[in-house]
Structure formats: structure tokens, C-alpha cells
Amino acid sequence: MVERALRFGSVAGAYERFRPGYPEELVDLVLGYAGRPIRTALEIGAGTGKAARAFAARGIVVTATEPDEAMLEELRRHVLPTVTTVRSAFEDLPLAAEHDLVYAAAALHWTRPEGRWDRVARLLRPGGVFASFGGPVRIADPAVRASADQARSRFLETDEVLPPDGTPADDGLQWPGSELAGDSRFTDVRQEIVARRLTMAAEDFVGHLATVSAYLELSGEVRTEALAQILAVLPDRVEVDADITAHLARSVP
């Protein structure tokens, strides 16, 4: 999984252009849950900095970590000066510093499960907050989505990332909340949804798909053909559901 995550650098510019950013409502949710001032934050797998800039805009000193240099270069073009960038995989981060907030934006599933929660617990101050958030961007109209799925099925069975722990989709508490709830070092585990519906040009939706890991796993020619087949069945404008699922937990003091 970690090696697969390093493929995003090849599409860093498209990632920044086509991936939706994070809304104010999400930041409000995390800071409201904290219930006390958040002064420092560490981001795991910051990508091009879409979440980092949202938290930094609230006056939080963010350390954005990312193993891919191409993604970091794109990040540095957009973030505030208060954001410190560190090229590192999560597994290689030094554990000396403690933060008020440790979070991952559509990135936690790329980290290795061995020792994941040990590292998160050590990176948090006592009573500090952990947050993981993200979610797929799905075509809202059922008929249009079915057509796109059929076009994609020639190349990929699915283009979504499955829960690492195999949690069924109909379970009330999804991953990583399902793991956090069973770890005595964390408390007050919550799962919240930030509802979001967006409209984008068909070309932009396909541009977004081109940054999804499942498509990056395809060879160049096959990927180009798959995306062209999907584009061919889409209307000019595509309405998408882009709800954000957030998992929140507090480090036990």
C-alpha cells in the first residue's frame, strides 16, 4: 500500500487541479470536537496541501508530512508560510514532538497497519485529537453512474479503496473508527458526515478519476482508454456526491 501511494506524484498537478478541497464545515467539526485551542497540528500524507491550507487558515501551525517530493513541490506552491513541510513517510517520522492535533486527509489507508496507533498516540499530546477524513466522489444520478460503472468495468472491477480491516459497508462504525474504538489509548470515538454535493464539467470529473489510485495502477494506454470510455457516456455537467466521513478520537490523558 505504501508503494502504491507513491504513484500520486506523477499526477501532482492534476491532483491539485481536480481534487476537491476541504470545506470550512469540516474544520469547524474538528475544532469543535477538540473543545480547546488547537495550536499545532501534524498532517499524515499531506498530498498537495488541500487540508493543510484549510487548518493553517485558522491560525494553526501545521507540519505537513508527505513522502513524495513531487507532491510536496505542488504543496509548497499553495500553502501559507505557517505550514512546515517534511518529506517523510508516516512510518519514518521522529516521535519526539507532540501535537494538539494529528490528522490524515484521505491518506491514512496508505500507512502500514503495524504500529500505526502506537505512532499516533506518541505524536499526540495527552488529550490531543486525532482526525481522519475523506470519502469517494461518486456520480449522484443513478442512471449516469450505472453507465459510467459499465464503461469502467471493462478495465477495473472498482475504483474505490476498500476498508483495510474489511469492515462491511453497512456497519454503523466504519474504519478507522472501528479500530480506534477498540484501542484503550483513545476515547470519545466519533463518526461524523459532512454532506457535500458538487457539480463539475465532465472533463473535470474524468480529470479527478485520473488521480485515483486504481487508475494509476493501469498502464498508460489502458488508463487513457478507460478514461475516454467513461467520458463518452457522461453528460456535459456531472453532479457528484462528495460527502466527507470524519473519524475523531481523543488521546487518553
Describe what you observe in this structure:
- This protein is of the alpha/beta class and 253 residues long.
- The chain has one domain: Rossmann fold (3-Layer(aba) Sandwich), CATH 3.40.50.
- Helices cover 34% and strands 25% of the residues.
- The protein is built from eleven helices and ten strands.
- It has helices spanning 2-5, 12-18, 24-34, 50-56, 69-76, 116-123, 142-153, 177-180, 202-209, 213-216, 220-232, and strands spanning 40-44, 61-66, 84-87, 99-105, 124-134, 138-139, 186-194, 197-201, 237-241, 244-251.
- The strands form two sheets. A seven-stranded mixed β-sheet has the order 3-2-1-4-5-10-7.
- Strand 1, helix 4 (50-56) and strand 2 (61-66) form a beta-alpha-beta unit.
- Helix 2 (12-18) crosses helix 9 and helix 7 (142-153) packs antiparallel against helix 11.
- The chain starts with a helix and ends with a strand.
- The relative contact order is 0.18.
- The model has no long low-confidence stretch (mean pLDDT 95).
Label the CATH architecture.
Answer: 3-Layer(aba) Sandwich
- If you consult CATH, what is the topology? Rossmann fold
The named CATH superfamily? Vaccinia Virus protein VP39
Which term fits the overall shape? globular
Number of strands: 10
N- to C-terminal separation? 32 Å
Q: What's the SSE pattern?
A: HHHEHEHEEHEEHHEEHHHEE
Computed Rg: 18 Å
Total of domains: 1
The percentage of residues in β strands lies in 15-25%
Q: Helix content range of the residues, please?
A: 25-40%
**How does the major sheet shape up?**
7 strands, mixed
* Broad structural category: alpha/beta
Number of helices: 11
